[in-house]
Fold these 4 entries.
Entry 1:
Amino acid sequence: MSRFDHLFYLTSRLHARTDRFIQTRLNQHGLKGLVPSHGAILSLLYQRGPMTMAALAEAIDRDRSTVTALVEKLVRSGYVARDPDPDDRRKTRVVLTEASRPLKKPLLAISSELRRTAFRDLDPEMLHRVMGVLERLIQNLDDEHVAADERSARSTRNRKR
């Protein structure tokens, strides 16, 4: 494995360790039916208020079908509900229910503990540099994805001629 391939291996391990940390804390707080992605959705709704499925998908960087499944589980658990968007009845907004209120404090505590644990012994400048590099890697891959979609669309148009 090259040094650069190792970076992707490390980011994959970091993601797995983060999920494990969050899942362990969710279980310790008695929130056994939730997974880290549920926490991400609930946290967004606590911060921003009602959101459409598309906005949630974009905010947590997941495809809509994945977000639909996650939200459906939260609906079945009684933590969120789907309401018609008052501005566009064709759209549905995801809204918090009263049952979700007691989750806010433990979710915030888990998030805070994760940051304290993961960022321990890292100075802010180092952390800022790492975040900048990771954001650039993500942007490069996003740019390539868009370019590949455009190439595919051109190829399809050319074949139809």
Entry 2:
Amino acid sequence: MIMRRRIVNAVALALAAFAGAAIAQAQAYPSRPIRLIIPVQPGSSTNDSIPRAFAKHLSVAFGQTVVTDNRPGASGQIASETVAKSAPDGYTLLVGYTTTLGIGPAVHEKLPYDPDKDLVPVARLFVSSYVVAVNTMVPANTLKELIDLAKAKPGQLHYASAGTGSTPHLCGELLKTMAGINIVHIPYKASGSAMTALAGGEAQIGCQAAGTYVPLIKAGKMRALAVAAPQRLPTFADLPTSAEAGLPGYEVQSWTGYMAPAKTPPAVLRRLYDELAKIIETPEMKNFILSQGAEPALMDSATFAAYIKAERVKWAKVVKAAGIQPN
């Protein structure tokens, strides 16, 4: 009986010490600059602009610089591998999004890292509905007119994406399938390159996150036709939904959040999440996210992890239906 009591007391003391160490670790974090790896080109999409804005706010909240490091290419796999192989101490973070973590495992059979075992979610931050747009030289002012044009010119219109297996690629594949049209996919190395091709007329059609088009539309180089969402967007209030435009059920939404190397201490993950949760509730950040054509959509680590798993199942079905062969 005495021995059992001693064991219980020893375990209790050990747990208390562990809890105390975790609290101390969270309070001490961060004690040096944090590096945020962004898988897209600077200024190329909301996957750069919004996470970068969060980084600036985190710098103020932590009193430590959050350095943004853009590493585009390979549909986000280069950046993801960099973070997956970094020390699990909370000082190297990743901007994770649909293309890399939701679609990537179904498209790339031999990834240089394991998305489940090598990365852990910190928080989901926002979601973006996709918009179908065309170069202004294309004689189509509505989605129906674009579909009619594509049917009249099978195989002659091209749509640009940020690479095979990217969300814009699958957005285009869904459009092909649901509208019964033959448009040709042109994969580029990154979203910025795809936007340049669209602006220059090298490709005629694009399907990207809404905010990505704002600069090109303002510059008169792109024309938005419809939003692939169940409701209209505040940023494009006059833009009809796909259902209103004559293609009900055509809906594509992407998500973006912060990730960390696996085995990052839970206390550090919580510290990051708590600060991000405060930032996303500020009117300044909410308005900025909305101005980019996205919507605030916070999730904690555990909820985000379950969400990503469900997304992989969903997108794997789309990849299979589109006939995309894993590479």
Entry 3:
Amino acid sequence: MTNCIFCGIISGEIPSHKIYEDSNVVAFLDINPVKDGHTLIVPK
């Protein structure tokens, strides 16, 4: 995939505030949160 923002976050090319990561998923705070703690969970 080209220009995949989530791929860039998972690989570390795009900075993020990761709050959880394992072999299957990564969770990080949204850059434009609706509420405090708005978290995105993305499969790897």
Entry 4:
Amino acid sequence: MFRLTFILLFITNKTGNYNDLFYALWIGLRFDMRLACFILIPIVIAFLIPIYNPLNQSFFRLLAKIYLKMSILIIILLYGFDLGNYSYLDQRIDISSLKLLENPLIAFGMAWESYPMVIILFILVIVVYFVWRNIDKTFTILTNRPKVFNFSQSIIGSTISGFIFIFAIWGTFRQYRLLWSDAHFSNDPFIVASAINPILYLNETRSFALEEFNEEKTRSNYDLMVKELNITIPNSKALSFTRSISKRHIKDQPNIVVIFLESVGYNRMSKSGNPLNPTPNL
């Protein structure tokens, strides 16, 4: 449902063809099946052990309901965050997106000023309510249904379900499982985004999280940085990078021009060894 919502909301960004979009939906469906199976693994294990089977024990049935409802709540909140993130930045959530939540008050204030939060929260509450009701109904149906399957039918049903479960987790019949990189088959960023499952993608990009500060490396290169930055009062113990600039008395009023730069990569400068020999400093 959220994948279709995503496409309907942002399809105006599409530049590729519809064949690629349908293929992206097929990839996305397999990612969604994988996520669903990951969530259901504890429930499946409980069903296989008679004393923990939620259909036989009311206590474990309650635990299963709570587990599924909390999982669904977290997933829906992450999907809502993903839609807002794509609307703002044109990209699905990844590990770097969590930096936006480092200060929850500022993040919520920005969201409140940028989006119709009352309507969005109302829709999310409605979705959560109906999904939770369906979970309760499903357990009621499974608990009250008559057990009319014989042993052979149960074996066949379990075997077929097992194959479907394995395929959903693996995502393909090939030797290698379905990877998030398989979604990047198109030159259209929107089609690629349509194939990604944001929650699985968020987990996959955890390895891309970079350490912001490494004190050991900073200390080992401190003398070099002192020379490079012209630090006037070096202090290796405190790792001080303070520079003292003496005041200059100017008789004539200067004409000051301030230029704001959005961002410039270090590799664009000749100081990095760029063979194009651009400007060394900015």
